[in-house]
Design a protein that fits this description.
about 260 residues; alpha/beta; Ribosomal Protein L25, Chain P; Alpha/beta knot; 2 domains; 6-stranded parallel β-sheet; 7 helices; about 35% helix
Length: about 260
């Protein structure tokens, strides 16, 4: 069965249904020229702000949608998972954002480690985040998510800890992915929690001060296995492991 294409729009209050909305240029190009959607073709619309989902059709003229039905919206994953990934060289950060989004991460914190090869100048941050948000939106569309992960930047480990200690994640299960031999496996640490925060380091691993700061702020060390993983592999593996195990824990608790 063919899947109905999905677009993310800032809808606000659209009033009574049916309602017409104009397609922004990018979404129109995506639907008409990339997916080849014809007039009266069905489209799923997700409100970027509220995560609400609607059914719509592409109107003749191919520049407007008619939203005719509100759909039941459910969270893609629970509990929400935040991945704090150190900035990585080349396009590895983009890969982490794309894959973490597909795997269900609710938020992504990109933090600048002492050992990060890639570094952002203050004037670059907003431009970079805008670009990264577009990558995440594309991955959300492809993986049929209801919400696009929030992406924020932390200039050092202390700023990372402040980001983690905001109200929505303050009571979270906080885990630092550790290469130490004595750390328990990540799969043994996942348990019922209101939220999960995972932090991974850069290519050169955490500095001693960063590791100490995270442990002292309430993070538990966890291993991703006996092999030393590339930094981008570690971040993706951590999200995948936490997502699958938290889903299993949730189902077992429900039973």
């Amino acid at each position: 069965m063919a899947h109905i294409p999905r677009v993310f729009l800032k809808l606000g209050d659209i009033g009574a249904l049916p309602a017409r909305v104009k397609l922004p240029d990018f979404e129109q190009h995506y639907l008409v020229h990339v997916l080849r959607i014809k007039s009266r073709g069905k489209v799923t619309v997700v409100d970027k702000n509220l995560g609400r989902t609607y059914q719509a059709i592409l109107l003749p003229g191919l520049s407007e949608l008619e939203i005719y039905e509100a759909k039941e919206t459910t969270s893609n994953f629970s509990p929400p998972i935040t991945i704090g990934s150190a900035l990585l060289k080349g396009k590895k950060t983009e890969v982490v954002i794309e894959k973490a989004t597909e795997l269900g991460a609710a938020a992504i914190i990109l933090w600048q480690s002492e050992r990060s090869v890639k570094r952002f100048k203050p004037v670059e941050v907003q431009h970079k985040l805008t670009r990264y948000q577009k990558i995440s939106e594309s991955a959300s569309r492809q993986s049929r998510r209801n919400r696009i992960p929030e992406i924020v930047f932390a200039c050092n480990v202390n700023e990372l800890i402040r980001c983690v200690n905001k109200p929505s994640t303050k009571a979270a299960l906080k885990i630092i992915c550790d290469t130490g031999k004595d750390a328990p496996l990540l799969c043994d640490l996942i348990k019922p929690a209101p939220a999960i925060v995972l932090v991974t380091g850069p290519e050169g691993d955490f500095s001693e001060l960063e590791h100490k700061s995270l442990i002292e702020s309430g993070f538990f060390p966890a291993s991703l296995g006996p092999n030393i993983l590339r930094a981008e592999t570690a971040a993706i593996s951590a999200v995948a492991t936490a997502t699958m195990l938290s889903l299993k824990v949730g189902r077992d608790s429900a039973d």
